[in-house]
Write a structure and sequence with these properties.
There is one protein chain. This protein is an alpha/beta fold. The chain contains 16 helices and 31 strands. The strands form 6 sheets. Strands 1, 2, 3, 4, 5, 15, 16, 17 and 18 form a 9-stranded mixed sheet that branches. The protein has a 9-stranded mixed sheet with strand order 21-20-19-23-22-25-24-26-27. A 5-stranded parallel sheet has the order 6-8-9-10-11. The N and C termini lie far apart (about 60 Å).
């Protein structure tokens, strides 16, 4: 999509000198200079093809008969924003997501497609890269760095070392994504160390994930060349990492919102913030519509006291400095790619116009660039490799009349602990009980199509429904079914097989709400608006019927996630995360 600076220098030089004419000149810019942290009035910017050739008081020498001249009328002009870490393999296709991001002034996305790889391996990674190309936004990718989460239990696909090496040869693949099981680094797990070494040898970036690491363990991690983290949830964690030379991506997204906890202390401590960025880590459709994207981080930071130019620098330049892309992107200066935002008002931080590579893509708050839907390989829509279910597939049998069951007790939608419940068998079966809030929970290997599955009990869910099923779960992507009724669990599972993925809520044999995720079982091929409405209906239905938590879609999403305590369910069994051992549903 973009030119290289190496092949553009003669042309840029000629325009700067007035020997060649610009394609586009922006006049009367109130330029937010991220290099000097000044606002410079009455600036003129000359652009040829997709790069900036001249920035200064008078670009008249670059204007020819074919040059488009736009009077910005003293509005604020800043570089495009970047999200340095997000999972865009969620909810909607990249072609739908980028529309929302561009409206928020985000012109570069640094994607970590971990769940695509978990479902579809290297073939999926390569196909997914194509879906991010030729869009009017910059999408850079990293090779997922956290798979398998725990080889002892994980069933997900991951890349081999040679596939990782091949992947980073692609010009848009920058390195390794969040290496989130940091113990693999501190224990010097052989594959992880080889992967990191190989990335360093090829001068690739490695993104970090250091939740819970400190002191010597954090030192060991950082000494391995992993220089960023988006996990700090308070200022002390930010400071400890900055002091060790790390870069911090302050997370403000659908999984967590940490900005308010961190920015006030950044200000009161007067720390050097050249190494601070904002990231989303992933946004659900309702959140991006309600809050926005990186524009929201800039807005909120300004409200918390940060100077607009500093917040904008964190949203733009710092990201490209981190990714070693500062010669091409991050600011408005000669030689840089012309990713430019124009704001009416610095309080609103909603760009009126967005240019990517000198092309207008947003005007008056509307997308004006054509964004075509990409063709998806048919195999990507056949990833739920399961046979038709009957209620008998969800039986838990016991010869004993009274049993003590181990349950997955939901403390929040995400955090679990091991619970126990005295249950009684009826005709040799242990049943779920809505009255006592004891549910069945099942995980099926839908990726490889083996018969591997596990069934156990879940506690403290609370909704008056028969079943809730989903094919999207971090980063195993088993089909997870939570249910109070075996027949409804079968109906939900069969509905998902028919749609080849998604979330569904069933009661008394009826589908109450569904969110089809036909692409790899984790992304919908529908429009953003339709996905948004289906997503809202899923959560509202379960909440309205009495669920104890406000965001129930997170329950199947996190149930197999081995990186969090205390008990998880995967198709291979129920796992005690701390002890790293399987536990049986019935003692
Ligand atoms: Fe992440």
């Amino acid at each position: 999509m973009n030119s290289s600076l190496a092949t553009s220098i003669s042309s840029l030089n000629s325009v700067a000198m007035g020997d060649k004419k610009a394609d586009l000149v922006l006049k009367n810019c109130n330029l937010l200079s991220v290099y000097t942290r000044e606002t410079l009035p009455k600036i003129q910017i000359a652009i040829i093809h997709d790069r900036i050739a001249y920035v200064g008081p008078d670009a008249s020498h670059t204007i020819g008969p074919k040059t488009t001249v736009i009077d910005v009328k003293d509005k604020y002009v800043s570089p495009g924003f970047a999200d340095p870490h997000l999972h865009i393999d969620q909810f909607v296709l990249p072609s739908e997501f980028v529309k929302q991001a561009l409206l928020c002034g985000v012109t570069s996305l640094f994607s970590d497609p971990i769940d695509i790889v978990s479902v579809a391996g290297y073939k999926g990674f390569q196909e997914f890269l194509k879906l991010g190309e030729d869009l009017p936004i910059r999408i850079f990718q990293v090779v997922p760095g956290g798979l398998p989460v725990d080889a002892k239990f994980s069933n997900s696909n991951s890349l081999t070392l040679s596939q990782e090496k091949s992947a980073v040869k692609h010009p848009h693949v920058l390195g390794l994504g969040e290496v989130f099981s940091w113990t693999k680094v501190t224990l010097r797990e052989p594959k992880t160390m080889k992967s990191i070494s190989s990335m360093l040898e090829h001068d690739c970036i490695i993104n970090g994930h250091t939740a819970g690491a400190s002191e010597k363990k954090l030192n060991a991690y950082v000494s391995s060349g992993i220089l960023s983290c988006h996990e700090p949830i308070n200022f002390d964690q930010v400071l400890e990492r900055l002091r060790l030379g790390m870069w911090i991506m302050i997370r403000e997204g659908s999984i967590r919102r940490d900005l308010k906890e961190i920015i006030p202390y950044v200000l009161s401590h007067g720390i050097y913030f050249n190494r601070l960025m904002f990231c989303s880590d992933g946004l659900d459709p309702l959140d991006i519509a309600k809050f926005g994207h990186i524009d929201h981080c800039v807005r909120e930071s300004i409200k918390l006291g940060l100077k607009p130019i500093d917040a904008i620098t964190m949203a733009s330049k710092n990201n490209f400095d981190y990714y070693n892309m500062g010669k091409d992107l991050g600011g408005i200066a000669p030689g840089k790619l012309a990713d430019i935002l124009i704001f009416d008002d610095l309080k609103l931080i909603k760009p009126n116009k967005v240019y990517v590579g000198g092309k207008l893509v947003v005007s008056n708050g509307k997308i004006v660039s054509s964004i075509r839907k990409k063709t998806i390989s048919p195999w990507f829509k056949k990833t739920v490799k399961l046979k038709k279910f009957s209620k008998n597939d969800f039986l838990i049998k016991s010869k004993k009349k009274d049993v003590l069951a181990n349950t997955i007790f939901m403390q929040t939608e995400i955090i679990t602990k091991i619970g126990s419940a005295e249950l009684h068998s009826r005709e040799g079966q242990i049943l779920a009980s809505l009255d006592s809030d004891i549910w069945k929970v099942a995980a099926f290997d839908r990726i490889h199509g083996t018969n591997q599955h596990s069934i156990g009990f879940l506690e403290n869910f609370g909704a008056d429904i028969g079943a809730f099923a989903s094919t999207w779960s971090f980063h195993e992507n088993d089909m997870i079914v939570v249910g109070s009724d075996d027949s409804d669990m079968a109906v939900a599972s069969n509905y998902i097989i028919k749609n080849q993925g998604g979330l569904v809520v069933v009661k008394s044999g009826k589908i109450l709400a569904s969110l089809p995720l036909q692409f790899a079982g984790i992304i919908s091929t529908d429009s953003f608006e339709k996905v948004s409405s289906n997503f809202e209906k899923i959560n509202n239905t379960i909440v309205d019927l009495g669920c104890r938590f406000s965001r129930p879609h997170l329950i199947p999403l996190f149930l197999p996630f081995l990186a969090l305590p205390s008990v998880r369910i995967l198709s291979g069994g129920i796992v005690d995360v701390k002890k790293r051992s399987y536990i049986q549903p019935i003692n």
